[in-house]
Structures are given as C-alpha cells and as structure tokens.
Amino acid sequence: MAKVATRIVLDKKTLKKALRELADVDPDIARALEEAGTPELRDMPTGYGGLMRSIVGQQVSVHAARSIWLRLEAAVPSMEPAAFLAQTDEQLRAVGLSGAKVKYGRSLATDIVEGRIDFSTLDDLDDAAAIAMLTQAKGIGPWTAEIYLMFAHGRPDIMPGLDLGLVVAAQHLKKLRTRPDAKRLLKIAEAWRPWRSAAALVLWHYRRNMPDWSAREKNGEKKT
Known about the structure:
- By secondary structure, the chain is mostly helical.
- It is built from 14 helices and no strands.
- Helix 3 (48-57) packs antiparallel against helix 7 (99-113), helix 9 packs across helix 10 and helix 11 packs across helix 13 (196-208).
C-alpha cells in the first residue's frame, strides 16, 4: 500500500488557509462564502466509534441518527469492537439499529479484532489506500470511508462524489442545467485540489443555506 510522505491535517488553522486559496481560484466558491458564510470544521471520533457512527447515520435523518447513536453509546459506552460484539442482536436492535446495521457493526468489529483494519497504520496510507482498507468491511462503502477520513482524520483533499448534498450544491453554485453525476462532480473538483475537503464543507454549508432547505428538512431529508 502507498504511504504518505508528509500529511497536512485539515484543522482550524489550515481551514482558513484553504478557504482563502479556494476563493482565490474559484469565484463561485468566493460567492458561496459571501452568501452563506464560513463553514465550521467538523469532527468525528477516530477508530471503531467513528466508523460505527457513520453506519448509524446511513439512510436516516440527522435527528433519527442522533437518537440511535445516543442509545448505542449508553449500551456500549467504550465503543470498542469487543464490547460491541458482546451485545446480543436483540440488545442492539433495541437501541434502534436495523438488522443490516447490526450485521455491519459486527463485521466491522470482527475486521478490526482480526487485524484486517488497523487504525494504527491508517495515517501512514495515502487516501486511496486508506479507503481500500476501510471498505473491506461490509457496510463501509466509499462514501462512508471518505466521510470518516475527512472528519475523523482531517484528510484535506477528499471529495465524496456520491454525496447527494454536494451534487445538489454544485449544480446550484455552478448554475448547471442538469445535476452532475459523481464523475462530473469530481472533474469540477479538480480545480479545488489540494483542498477538496474544505470545498466540500463550503458546498454542504451552502446547501444548508439554500432557500428550499427548510422544506426539505421538514420532509426528513438527511443533512450531511
């Protein structure tokens, strides 16, 4: 697996630098920042807890995900793989996990316990290799791995092309006639290297401040 030579972490200081540089190279990003304001840096727990939180949030609203996560944390306070595996399926379903998410949580925990996913080496890998390691687990697709690396490990140059919120925001920001697919979004995002993660934060923030968002939120659309 390819290793990273010197890795920049997206933190509060580097986010400011990233936003300045993005605004300089892309007038649309500059306009988004002017209209919607500066996005906040997000964080997520590293390790099993962070990935499990991503699994919990799959295909549900933010409100529902938060409620399930709080109940899961109460049931498994350490959020260690072995502690999760010690829970019965009935106990895990009782906190709100679907049958599929119980399986995904167990699969991920087993991969970590058996060494197929090794968080101690993750920061030494480049983005592609890190994503490849994480997506070995059932229920961890590219989007989940990318979100985890962005928020838990501060990877600065990731653009989750499959994220609906990013696609919708890019269409409006770039005034595109049709919604871009993942391939086109990634092509647009080439101009935002090496700060694509910061650009994604801008797009999500811009999306949440678009005029139609309140109606979508009432209908239960998941925020990212």
